């Protein structure tokens, strides 16, 4: 190890000792009962057994984005995935059985075993991760890399440190030309621009539906309490309201809720399973696989999962179709995907009625940029 590596390891060890009491305190929270022991005490967190393609991501959004890459190589190589967050861990388990929480850096020199390739998503720039993987013989890649205007100044302040990290990264796939320029300034060796790979999996329309003459408002992927909020915020003059619950087991409950709501009101209603039209004022979509088809003809989307403490849902789908996009503020599981969208609004629950009253002032959402994973696939195949 170089002199810098030794100093860094000593400082990381001191940091570990300093945060040790805090870790014990955090363990009182059930949310961290698996993650903290895994990352900081290596409890039930062994090294990857098989030499294969090792992906490292942070949370759910980044882990979802690597699915096409996993699918491309899973039949020929062992797929190993390390993560940082609980949501990332749960998402990674859908892709492979070989999932680990990434240990704290002082454990990595003896935790990391030889892998064919290390592929790291976005801003997971851990010095020991790249150094040790490289020392064990892996080719190292950083994909979907970006450096925002806000973080660029702090990156430059510590440019000497990032040069040390980039020294152990063989190639970087960046989102934009601006990101490429900044990465090269910070010491990156080889950078290729391919766009945002989170937008490589775009929505597919499986059935073309006929557009309606009125404004079509779709409440997509709604959860408990959200349908009630949306119904109470709705007026017939806003347009037609389509409600698509997230979970099919709730279809009957939502049906009863709507039937109760329209009593003594001049509103028509039907279920999509019995009549695949949008003739009524309110339509309950109680069939699976229809959401993107309906987004394609919608003018406005109220995106569920964020008016309750769920974490939000995928904004890429309605933005792809140019819908006016409204969501609640609890988007903590989808922040990375919302960064790919322009012209959406996040509101408090009590603001929904007034927002719908001012629909004419909203702009249609747009995707910031598209992405292409094929250069990454070709690079890995070339190995």
From TrEMBL:
TM ranges: 6-25
Pfam families on file: Glycos_transf_N
Keyword Isomerase part of the UniProt annotation: no
Site entry (Transition state stabilizer), positions: 122, 198
Pathway it works in: Bacterial outer membrane biogenesis; LPS core biosynthesis
A GO cellular-component term linked to this record: plasma membrane
Enzyme active site: 62
This protein's UniProt keywords: Cell membrane, Lipopolysaccharide biosynthesis, Membrane, Transferase, Transmembrane, Transmembrane helix
Cellular compartments annotated: Cell membrane
Ranges of residues in domain 3-deoxy-D-manno-octulosonic-acid transferase N-terminal: 49-200
GO biological process, one term: lipopolysaccharide core region biosynthetic process
Enzyme Commission number(s): 2.4.99.12
GO molecular function per UniProt: Kdo transferase activity
EC class: transferase
Catalytic activity: lipid IVA (E. coli) + CMP-3-deoxy-beta-D-manno-octulosonate = alpha-Kdo-(2->6)-lipid IVA (E. coli) + CMP + H(+)
InterPro entries: Glycos_transf_N, Glycos_transf_N_sf, Kdotransferase
NCBIfam families: PRK05749.1-5
Recorded family membership: Belongs to the glycosyltransferase group 1 family.
General function of this protein: Involved in lipopolysaccharide (LPS) biosynthesis. Catalyzes the transfer of 3-deoxy-D-manno-octulosonate (Kdo) residue(s) from CMP-Kdo to lipid IV(A), the tetraacyldisaccharide-1,4'-bisphosphate precursor of lipid A.
Protein name: 3-deoxy-D-manno-octulosonic acid transferase
Organism in which the protein naturally occurs: Halarcobacter ebronensis
């Amino acid at each position: 190890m170089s002199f810098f590596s030794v100093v860094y390891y000593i400082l990381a060890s001191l940091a570990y000792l300093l945060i040790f009491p805090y870790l014990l305190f955090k363990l009182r929270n059930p949310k961290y009962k698996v993650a903290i022991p895994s990352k900081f005490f290596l409890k039930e967190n062994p090294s990857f057994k098989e030499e294969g393609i090792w992906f490292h991501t942070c949370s759910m959004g980044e882990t979802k984005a690597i699915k096409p890459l996993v699918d491309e190589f899973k039949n020929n190589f062992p797929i190993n995935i390390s993560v940082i967050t609980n949501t990332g861990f749960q998402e990674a388990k859908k892709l492979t059985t070989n999932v680990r929480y990434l240990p704290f850096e002082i454990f990595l020199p003896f935790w990391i075993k030889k892998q064919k390739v290390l592929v790291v998503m976005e801003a997971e720039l851990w010095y020991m991760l790249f150094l040790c993987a490289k020392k064990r013989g892996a080719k190292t890649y950083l994909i979907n890399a970006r450096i925002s205007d806000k973080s660029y100044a702090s990156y430059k302040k510590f440019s000497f440190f990032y040069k040390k990290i980039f020294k152990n990264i063989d190639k970087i796939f960046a989102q934009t030309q601006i990101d490429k320029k900044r990465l090269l300034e910070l010491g990156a060796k080889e950078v290729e621009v391919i766009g945002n790979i989170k937008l490589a999996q775009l929505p597919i329309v499986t059935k073309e539906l006929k557009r309606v003459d009125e404004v079509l408002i779709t409440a997509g992927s709604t959860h408990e309490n959200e349908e009630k909020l949306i119904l109470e915020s709705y007026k017939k003059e806003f347009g037609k309201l389509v409600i698509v619950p997230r979970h099919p087991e709730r279809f009957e409950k939502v049906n009863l809720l709507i039937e109760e709501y329209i009593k003594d009101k001049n509103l028509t209603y039907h279920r999509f399973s019995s009549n695949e039209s949008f003739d009524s004022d309110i339509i309950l979509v109680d069939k699976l696989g229809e959401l993107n088809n309906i987004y394609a003809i919608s003018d406005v989307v109220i995106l569920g999962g964020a008016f309750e403490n769920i974490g939000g849902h995928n904004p890429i789908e309605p933005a792809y179709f140019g819908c006016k996009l409204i969501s609640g503020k609890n988007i903590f599981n989808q922040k990375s995907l919302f960064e790919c969208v322009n012209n959406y609004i996040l509101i408090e629950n009590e603001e929904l009625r007034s927002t719908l009253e001012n629909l004419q002032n909203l702009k249609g959402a747009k995707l910031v940029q598209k992405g292409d994973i094929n250069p990454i696939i070709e690079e890995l195949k070339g190995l």
